[in-house]
Amino acid sequence: MPDGSSSPQLPAHIAAQLRSAGGAQDTGGQAWEGRNLGEGTSHTHLFPDDDGASAPAVASALTAWRGGHASETAVIAALPGSRVFVPIVAEVSHSQITDHGLVSDKEADMALVSLRTADGRKALPVFTAVDELSAWNPDARPVAVDIRRAALSAVQDGSDLLVVNPASDPAFVVRRPAMWCIAKDTPWTPSYADLAVDDAVLRAALGMDGIVSARTEPGSGIHGRRSDGVMLDGGATGPELVIVLQLTPGLTREKVQATIDRYQQKLATEPIMAENVDSVGLRLTA
Predict the structure, then answer these.
(1) How does the average pLDDT of the chain come out, rounded?
(2) CATH class for domain 191-285?
(3) CATH 3.30.70.1350 occupies which residues in the chain?
(4) Which residues contact 130 (CB under 8 A, 6 or more apart)?
(5) Which of 8, 15, 109, 181 could cross-link to 274 by cystine, CB 3.0-4.6 Å?
(6) Helix axes 147-156, 176-184, angle to 10 degrees
């Protein structure tokens, strides 16, 4: 079964949001190139009364999650409407060799930072407070945006994930379906608790020779882990969903593979699997 590491085609409502989100611009429609992000811009301009601290509801949810007292759904539910910071760093766009043989930087553009996860997926780091960003990279400049616009920018930039406070223990990962829900400003239900996903998984198996039943369960990769080894409820990169197929006993190896192939083809026609499931694995039982 595919592991969900490649991004599916964007749903129409997400694509519509992006058409109004700009191109080589920030989420407020201002071009990144040549951008002055010094005093008077960033959160001092967009959020004049902002002290740069984490929103209380978000800080409380993250603290409870890291303490093992809250689920990832509680953290996601606290994010909408909050202000976050995205990091901007200078990238040299033009340099020259001086008369003394040294490299002299003549021009620099401001660039949005992205990360790569262990499985190669692109992620946008976001920070709930200026101090969180400074602890991660003191040279990065904070640009304040609403979390919804940050999510739209991540989708536009081809990112599959948001990573909240990467320097924290541990960082909280917002997977693609949750990121899309934040961008749409709609509630999020994890795929392993989504009855519509469960229905699609079962529907794809109906009438298929060789399959007795099909169900879903949480994947082994959903749980974040603190540095002391304590496992947390969600907040990791995946795989988030496991499909458990019970096959008819006695099938040959060739018959098993053919059954799986047909099932995957049927399941791929279910739109909800692309929109609501970030990554999926398969487990066979007899």
Answers:
(1) 82
(2) alpha beta
(3) 191-285
(4) 43, 52, 53, 85, 142
(5) 8
(6) 120
Range list of β-strands (E), the chain: 83-97, 103-112, 115-116, 122-126, 141-146, 161-164, 172-174, 211-218, 223-225, 231-235, 241-247, 280-285
Q: Which residues pair with 87 in a beta bridge?
A: 142
Q: pLDDT tens digits for 17-37?
A: 444 443 444 444 444 444 443
Range 13-184 classified under CATH 1.10.760.10 = no
Element (H, E) at 160: none
Look-up: residue for tokens 């033009």? Answer: 94
Choose among 3, 2, 4, 17: nearest CA to 155: 17
Give 142's contacts (C-beta < 8 A, 6+ positions apart).
42, 43, 52, 85, 86, 87, 88, 127, 130, 133
Which DSSP state fits 182?
A: H
Low-confidence ranges of the chain (pLDDT < 70): 1-46, 90-111
Collapse the DSSP code of 246 into the 3-class scheme (helix H, G, I; strand E, B; otherwise coil) and give the result: strand
Cα separation, 6 vs 21, whole angstroms:
23
Write down the pLDDT at residue 14. Answer: 45
> Can you tell me whether residue 62 is helix, strand or coil?
helix
Query: What pTM value is reported for the model?
Result: 0.77
Give the per-residue pLDDT at 119: 82
CATH 3.40.1350.90 domain residues, the chain: 13-184
pLDDT value of residue 97: 53
Structure tokens at 162: 């948001």
